[in-house]
Structures
1.
Amino acid sequence: MSDAALVVSVEEALRPLSFARNVAWWDSQLDASDENERRRADTEHAYSDALADRELFAEVEKARSAESDPMAGRQLDLLHDLMVPRQISNALRARIVDLESAVEVRFSRHRGVVDGVEVDDNEIKRILRQSDDPTARRNAWEASKTVGASVADDVRELARCRNAAARELGYRDWFALSLATDELDEAKLISTLADADRATAEPFARWKSALDEKLANRFGCSPSELRPWHYADPFFQETPAEGSVDLDPLFAGKDIVSLSRRTFEGIGLEVTGILARSDLYPRAGKCQHAFCIDIDQSGDVRVLTNIVDNHDWTDTMLHELGHAVYDLGFDENLPWLFRSTHLVATEASALLFGALAGSREWLERVLGIGEREGAELEGRLRAARAAELVVFTRWVLVMNAFERALYADPDGDLDAIWWELVARYQLLTPPGGRRAPDWAAKIHVAVAPVYYHTYLYGAIVALQLKDALGAAVGGIVDRPEAGTLLQRKLFAPGQSIRWDRLVEHSSGSPLSVEPLAREVSAV
Ligand SMILES: [Zn+2]
């Protein structure tokens, strides 16, 4: 069989399985019923079985080692990366899939309890954003961690199984395997994160000490008495109101979906079809997070959100639609295996659009605030954006270092390691005497392992793209030329180009923390 014929036959085998898996996953996120969960597990097994096929993998490997035309060669490389993690014993593979499903269902169904009442994530966040009562805050924060205790043993077991899989395949651990199959170089990642640490350490420390003064005032204590529940979200991954601009009043009563549609219309990117297929508002039993899914890699793109009329959910909605327009933007002649995105590139698009909801130009032109209000807000918005970036970068440093430690030793003292990292990078004071698997309350550790650094890479690339669009067409909001450029340079190639070259191709320069260092200096 020629390389091209091999690629076509693989596509024919995988495509229907991928479609069934995506539909079942979508249904299970809308309603975590036993029936939906069973169908999800079945389709996941079927897809995973196809990628685990040893004979097929041998053929792919043989074809890769031979001379081949670059198009087929690139598709075979992508196929190799998809298949490698599944070239392990069937029992181990099934065990990993089952554990992942079980943990995910528990996250979806779990509700923390505050004062005897079940509360969802939105309610916990509301208390942490608004309450001035330290006891209520502490109760809400502790409620947000209870899911960790319920999944921690399974997450450790998942890490052991993932490591066993990686070692069967000749990799040091799951961390190393994940980077290799994501086309990420480990040495480059570590040096980039070290650069990001250096670029943000001082601005973050300066910003946080000013924040702590304000929080201490608000809660009537000294800065040294502040604990993690005094900050505005369960993980201190977002900027508290004291360190940012409270834009929520501007969004109260607004139609977030219309604003989102209007945003993309202004840059000539169509989202009406996406919105029609999506599930946008909160409901009992539904997944509480947000995501975008490309169901069939040929136009059926959907987002799941739980919209509330505030700034956060507007940012999230634009973020998810930033993924969605990318998935709709692949060149129509691309073969199926190229009709997908690298994680870094799609996060860059998502973050680029999400950030619009906090920019003066968008607030004036799309939300409709007055020019005087816009001018008054501008400096504070820039400082808030810088704060958001430093807070986020410090959080990614925690997550990355934690996951490196998790896979280096899943049986280690993870509860202690977690709080050491939180203290080192986020400068938070751990609650005295707390012994709990708080790390396991972060859903990504279980179901999106070794992924968080791609958000930081994505954030950096988003800044590079913003610079490039600014230089080329003057900005993004209401500039159809910006949409055209993104469409042509970033979206259209799909995965036909390796992600790091795509970054250079679309932004004009290779990945570098330079724009991050520049932005955070405004803090
Ligand atoms: Zn995203």
2.
Amino acid sequence: MEKDLSKYRKSYEKGALLLTEVPENPLELFQKWFHEVDAFFIEDETNAMTVSTIGLDGYPKNRVVLLKKYTYEGFIFYTNYNSEKGKAIAMNPNVCLSFFWHGAERQVIIKGKAEKIAENLSDGYFESRPRGSQIGALVSNQSEVVENREVLENKLKALEDELEGKEVIRPKHWGGYLVRPVEIEFWQGRPNRLHDRIRYKLQDNYDWQIDRLSP
Ligand SMILES: Cc1cc2nc3c(=O)[nH]c(=O)nc-3n(C[C@H](O)[C@H](O)[C@H](O)COP(=O)(O)O)c2cc1C
């Protein structure tokens, strides 16, 4: 099998990113871009991002998760702490998040350190989830091999019966991670492959050094 993709080409023309216009704090630029993408461009899930970890096997692995909150501190997503990514983070908290907002021709790449958020914050978010998602978190031993789909569906049914009329309590192995950024790169596609790349690097845990990178 062979498919030649060399004719897949696109000129990026929707925006520009100039050093003279960027704020001192990258979280403020992230917020601006996030709002713009939501308001002006076609993006199904603006908050979908990849999380890359270095696995116990030494390989990097990316997977998509949903960003649920961002603040000046960083970026929060929720998952199963016993999953492959959870085990990877326990060994090595250095992670990379990335967004590709194709409608806006923008990419954001964030290197940072992941840490579990406070239990009461995970409780609060868990309580806000639809009941189906709450029970789903109990059903799935995320990343473990499962014999077949029926096993999951039977477990779901059994739990639905068992918990009928009762509150679903967050399992301890499910919760949020906060990724505190140490580096954030903003990429805006431009014509002729002369894309704009602005990188913020954290200095002494406090100041952000801002540089333009070659595309
Ligand atoms: C659009 C989308 C959103 C997802 N959101 C989440 C999420 O918020 N949390 C999560 O644990 N997995 C989410 N997943 C599933 C993950 O990509 C992944 O399959 C799962 O977390 C297990 O990854 P792991 O085995 O590498 O730990 C999402 C997948 C997609 C495609």
